[in-house]
Write a structure and sequence with these properties.
- The complex is a heterodimer.
- Chain A has ten helices and ten strands.
- Chain A is an alpha/beta fold.
- The longest helix of chain A is centred in the last third of the chain and has 17 residues.
- By secondary structure, chain B is α+β, with helices and mostly antiparallel strands.
- The N and C termini of chain B lie far apart (30 Å).
- Classes of the chains: A alpha/beta, B alpha+beta.
Chain lengths: 234, 107
C-alpha cells in the first residue's frame, strides 16, 4: 500500500466516513473509493453490495480477482443518562471497543466522582448533540427514564440512522413514548426501530446485569451488518 | 481494551513515516471456523514488532516471518493457512479453519 493511500484512508476514518480500498491481487494495483466515487468506479456494483453488507470480500476471478476492504468508522456509543446502569456499562463498552460518551443535564448525576475518566457531558441532548454528530456508526442508549431528556435524543438518533437505538422502560412506558413520538411526526416504522424494553432478555436484575443485556444487544446490532445500511450506502 | 482497526492503520502510517520498513497483512478469505473476520489486519515492522491480529494468535508468528521477506522484496504475497497444509499444521490453526492472508509492503 502506498503511504499516500494509507494516509488518505486514515483521514477518512478520522472523519468518520465509510470507504473501500480496492486491491487488484494480480497486479497489486490499489485505489481508495470514497462514498462519493462509488458510482464512477468500474466495480461500482460489488462495492455497493460490500458496503451495504458492511463486509470486506473477494470478487472476480483470475486476473480480475480483487479484494474489497470495507473500511468503516470505529463504533461509538452515546449513553443518555449518567445513571447506575451507565456506570457499569461504561467500562464494559470500552472493553469491547466502543468509544463511549455519556450525556446528562442533571449535574448531580454527571460527576467525575461517579464516572472517573469517562467522557461525561453535563448538557441537554439538544445542546450537546450537534457537536457530537450522531451517525450510522453510533449506538444511542437512552437510560434516564425521563422523556424530557431521552426523547429528543431518540428522535435525533432515528433521524441520523444510528445502527442501534434503545430506550429503558417497560412495555407500557414505551407504548406511551411511542404515542408521543408519533404525535411529534415520526412514523410507526421508524419508532419500531427503537429497542424497548432495552437489552436482550437474560432476566437481568441489577444495574450491571442490565448493562450486560444492553451491550449484548448493541453488539448483535453491530455484527448483524445489513440491519441498517442506508447511512453507509447513501 | 481491544486493539482496533484504527489503531493498526494509524500505526502503519506512523511507523512508515518514522522510516521503518512496514508490511500490512489482511485476512482475504476464511473457510470454516476462523477466529478473525475477513478484512482483519496486522501491521509488522522490519524488526518483527507487530500490532493487530489475523487469527487468534495461531499464525501471527508465521505471518511476521513472511512479512520480513515482503518488506525486503516489495513483492506482495498471499499466504494460506489451514489444516490441510503442512506448514499450517506446524503453526497450528487448532480451530480447524482455513484462512488466506495478503501481505504487502507500505511504500
Amino acid at each position: 500500500m502506498r503511504l499516500d493511500l494509507l494516509a488518505a484512508l486514515n483521514a477518512e476514518r478520522a472523519a468518520r466516513r465509510a470507504c473501500v480500498v480496492v486491491t487488484e491481487l494480480e497486479s497489486g494495483a490499489q485505489r481508495l473509493v470514497g462514498l462519493d466515487r462509488v458510482d464512477a468506479d468500474p466495480l461500482a456494483g460489488p462495492i455497493r453490495e460490500a458496503l451495504a453488507a458492511r463486509r470486506s470480500r473477494l470478487v472476480g476471478e483470475g486476473a480480475k480477482r480483487a479484494f474489497l476492504a470495507v473500511e468503516l468508522p470505529p463504533p461509538r456509543m452515546l449513553v443518555i443518562g449518567a445513571v447506575h446502569i451507565s456506570q457499569a456499562l461504561a467500562p464494559m463498552a470500552r472493553l469491547t471497543g466502543f468509544d463511549l460518551t455519556i450525556i446528562d443535564p442533571r449535574t448531580a448525576f454527571a460527576t467525575p466522582e461517579r464516572f472517573g475518566d469517562v467522557r461525561v457531558i453535563a448538557e441537554w441532548p439538544e445542546v450537546a448533540l450537534p457537536a457530537y454528530g450522531l451517525d450510522p456508526f453510533t449506538a444511542l442508549v437512552a437510560l434516564t427514564h425521563d422523556p424530557k431528556v431521552d426523547e429528543p435524543a431518540l428522535v435525533a438518533a432515528l433521524k441520523a440512522g444510528c445502527f442501534y437505538v434503545g430506550a429503558l422502560g417497560s412495555r407500557r412506558t414505551h407504548a406511551k413514548r411511542g404515542e408521543r413520538l408519533q404525535a411529534a411526526g415520526l412514523s410507526p416504522d421508524v419508532i419500531g426501530r427503537i429497542h424497548a424494553p432495552i437489552g436482550i432478555d437474560i432476566g437481568a436484575a441489577s444495574p450491571a446485569e442490565i448493562a450486560v443485556a444492553v451491550l449484548a444487544e448493541v453488539i448483535r446490532a453491530l455484527r448483524s451488518g445489513a440491519a441498517h445500511a442506508e447511512g453507509v450506502a447513501a | 481494551m481491544d486493539v482496533t482497526e484504527s489503531d493498526v492503520l494509524a500505526a502503519a502510517e506512523r511507523w512508515r513515516r518514522e522510516g521503518r520498513g512496514v508490511a500490512l497483512a489482511t485476512v482475504l478469505e476464511t473457510w470454516g471456523s476462523a477466529p478473525r473476520p475477513v478484512g482483519s489486519r496486522l501491521v509488522i515492522d522490519a524488526d518483527g514488532n507487530f500490532l493487530g491480529s489475523v487469527s487468534g494468535g495461531c499464525v501471527e508468528g508465521a505471518v511476521v516471518g513472511e512479512a520480513a521477506d515482503v518488506i525486503a522484496s516489495g513483492t506482495p504475497r498471499t499466504l494460506e493457512f489451514g489444516v490441510a497444509d503442512e506448514t499450517a499444521w506446524k503453526v497450528g490453526l487448532s480451530c480447524g479453519g482455513k484462512i488466506a492472508v495478503f501481505v504487502e509492503r507500505v511504500d
